[in-house]
Structure formats: C-alpha cells, structure tokens
Amino acid sequence: MTLPKTPSFRLDGRRAVVTGAGRGIGLALAAALAEAGAEVTLIARTAAEIGAGAQAVRDAGGRAEAACLDVADINAVAAFFAERQAFDVLVNNAGTNRPKPMLDVDEADFDAVIDLNLKSAFFVAQAGARRMVEDGVKGSLIHIGSQMGHVGGPKRSLYCASKWALEGMSKAIALDLAGHGIRSNTIAPTFIETPLTKPFFEDETFRASVLDKIKLGRIGTVEDLMGAALFLACDAAALVTGTSLIVDGGWTAE
Fold first, then answer.
1. What is the residue-wise DSSP string for 77-92?
2. How far apart are CA 196 and CA 199, in angstroms?
C-alpha cells in the first residue's frame, strides 16, 4: 500500500516579500518565511528599522534583504515590482488604525486608514500579481486582515470598514487570478501584543474587555500568526484560495 505524502511546508528556492516588515507582525512573518527556506525581502518606510530587521533574519540563518518603500506611493510600488523578478509569496501587512467613536472621525482619519489598509493593499497586490503573471509564477498573496473584518467593534468603524473590504477584495482577487494559479487569502488575527499595541494593554479595563472576548483566555502573540502565514504560503495550502484563516482565540465563534 502506498500512502499519500504530506505536501511540503518548506519554501526553499522561493522568493517572498513582506510589507510593513520593520517590526511586530510583519517582521515575525518575514522570519517565519525565511526559516522555512524562502529568500525574503522586507519592506517598510524606515530604512534603519527595515535594515535591522533584515539583519536579524540573516543572523538567525535566513536569507533577507531590506527595501525602503512607501506602499502609499502607488507609482513607486509599481516600479518596485516591475524592476524585480516575480515573488512567489507576497504578504500584504502594512496597515494602520485610528480608534475613535464614529461621531468623532474626520476626513483625515478616514483617508489615513482606508488609503493604507485598502488602497495601498490593493495596488501592492496588483503590482505583485502582474509580475507573477508575466513570469509565469503560481504564487500566494496573503493579506493581513483582522477579526474586525468579520465582526464589529467599538471605536473601530474605520478599521472595520477597511478590513471587511479587504476580505471582499481578497475573494474577488482569488477569482480573477485562479486561472493563473495565483492564490489570495487573508489572515484575520485577534488583538496581538506588539511594541505598538503593548501600551494599550496597560489599561486594565481595556485588557479585561479583550480577554473576555478571547475564549482561549490570552492576548495573541506574533508567534500565533507565523504558522498561519507559512501554511498559506506553502504547497500544503495548494487548494486554499479566497478564504480567511481566522486566528482569534474564539472571538468570532460566539
């Protein structure tokens, strides 16, 4: 009897790019892909931060380069991908949030959140996918969404709008690119503790409200997302497209 063989979770010989990779979730996902064998390009606006991140990946034995790029600059994004060989994996991670009650949101808040979380994500995916199609690469697009792309939350009207839109965008992209063998999926995390979010959890009332919704009883860590990204990037997810991998400790199950 011949048993089926588990598809590889390795990424040897493949090229990956991660936006917003200078710290936090982006850096962790870059590290995960590099550990699995991918050659990773880390993108962020701050040269010193992205350079340090790439060096840390190399120090850990991975292959990584830093690329200083503002993903809000659509022309620069198009040029970046046009000038390079196609990536096999693209992680759309750059994003922002401006938590405010809906009645207090102004146009500048709206533009800041929607432009980065949705507009920039779309054009990064478009530029990366165009290059994949041109080079005949059957790749994986991974968009970092949020549990707030599946539910609502107080003071999250803009963030929810952007992340719900990202979910729909990813599904439509999956349909458009399926014929090219390019997959598109989202990862939807719960609250993740990073250097950026850690100060918020020092508010005990806020922390308690979050833990009340996360049924597994703890705030997420960047490590909780590393396996999810690796799965969606590798051959083990070859038939997975147009869906969302929700990593929320049970928040949205209720």
1. HHHHHHTSPPPSEEEE
2. 7
Q: 104: exposed, middle or buried (C-beta count within 10 Å: 0-12, 13-18, 19+)?
A: exposed
pLDDT tens-digit profile of 138-179? 999 999 999 999 999 999 999 999 999 999 999 999 999 999
Q: How many helical (H) and strand (E) elements, i.e. helices and strands, does the chain have?
A: 8, 7
d(CA 176, CA 127): 14
CA quadruple 15, 19, 22, 24: dihedral, nearest 10: -100
Residue owning tokens 């922390």: 207
Cβ count near 52 (within 10 Å): 15
pLDDT in tens, 7-45: 999 999 999 999 999 999 999 999 999 999 999 999 999
Q: Which strands sit side by side in the sheet containing 39-44, from one edge to the other? A: 63-68, 39-44, 15-18, 89-92, 140-144, 183-189, 244-247
Residues 49-62: tens digit of each pLDDT: 999 999 999 999 99
Separation between Cα atoms, residue 33 and residue 231, nearest integer Å: 10
* 92 vs 176: CA distance, rounded Å: 18
Helix (H) or strand (E) holding 162: helix 157-177
What residues contact residue 177 under an 8 Å CB cut-off, 6+ apart? 129, 133, 141, 183, 184
Show which residues are catalytic. Answer: 159
Q: 122: closest CA among 185, 173, 56?
A: 173
